[in-house]
Amino acid sequence: MKRLAANFALVVTLAGAARASQEPPETPVPIGPGITPPVLTRKVEPGYTPEALAERIQGIVALEAVISKEGQVTTLSVSSSLGYGLDEKAQEAIRKWRFKPGLKDGQPVPVRATIEVQFRLEGLTFDRKAEEKRTSFNRAMDQIARRDVPAPVATKAVETILKLSQQDYAPAVFIEAAWRMNGDKLPRDPEAAVALVERAAAARYGPALYEAALRRIEGRLLPRDPEQGMAQMRLAAKYGSHLAQYFLGKQLQTNPEGAAEARTYFQRCAFGGKPECQYRLANILQEKAKRSERDLVEAAAYLELAADQGLPEAKTAFSELAAQLTSSQLAKAQKLKPELVRH
Known about the structure:
Blueprint: E1 7-11, E2 29-30, E3 35-36, E4 39-42, H1 50-55, E5 59-67, E6 73-80, H2 86-94, E7 98-100, E8 102-104, E9 107-109, E10 111-119, H3 128-145, H4 151-166, H5 170-182, H6 190-202, H7 206-218, H8 226-238, H9 242-253, H10 259-271, H11 275-287, H12 293-308, H13 312-322, H14 327-336
C-alpha cells in the first residue's frame, strides 16, 4: 500500500493574543493581530512506521511549536496524538523544517503556532470530519490540562468540548458527564451526568460503558443489576476500556477456570500501557508451573514498564526478579519492552 505525502497546515491560533504587546520581545508571541505568520520554506516529509502501516492508521498529529527569529523550530510538543510512532515521525520531520520567520512591526520575532500533520494512505477512505473532531477534542483537553494556558484560551477549550458534546462526539459527552458529576467547570448535576454517561455508552465508547457497568453492578445512580452490568463490562473491554479489562481480569483471576481469559484481558490492558495490568501479567508469568526463560524475561520487561510509571509494588518485584536473572536475560528484557506496549 502506497503512502500519500503527509499534508501540513500551519494553524493560526489567537491564544493569548490580547497580551502579546505586553510581553518582552524575546518571548514567543501567538499568531494574531499585528503578527505576520511564519512561512514554510523547506519541508521534510515524515515517514510511516511499520506498525502504523500494518494497522492502516490514518489521521492528524497536532503539535504546539515555537518558530524562532531564525525560522527554526525550537520547541515542539504533541497536543493531539495519533500513536503507533507517528507522533515521533512528525516531530522528527518538523524539526528539519525551515521557515521565513514571523514578523512584528516588520521585525522577526519568535512565534507560537499549531502545526498539524496529516497522515493518509492511498486507497483508504479518510473520514475528515471525524478526524477533525478527534483532533479538536484532544487539543482542547490539552489546553484545559496545561497550567500555562491563559484563562480565555482555557475557557474557549471548555466551550469546544461542550460543542462537541452537543454534536454527540462520545468522548466529549463523557467529559461533560464527568464535569457535571463532580461540579467541575459546570454546575453539579448527578442525574444529568448519568444520562450523559448512558448517551456516550450507547455510542459504544469504552470508558462510558465501563462507568455505566460499574454503576449498575454497584447500584449507584442506576438500578442495581449485576448481570446487565457484567454484560456491559465485557462490552466496555471489547471497545478498549483498560479499566474494564483490568476489572474483568481481576474477577477471572480468582477462578482457576478463568485463568486463561484473565491473562488475555491483562495482556490487552498491559499493551495499552496500564501499569496494574503489566504488574498482574508479570505475576502470572512468574507463577506458571512450567515457566521458561522467555516467561521470566517477559515478566521482567512488564515489571520494569510498570515500575517506570511509578507503581511501587512493581519496583519492588522487579528488583527481586532482577537479582535472579543474568545480565544477558536483563538485556533481553530491555530489548523486549518496546514490543509490549502500544506507542
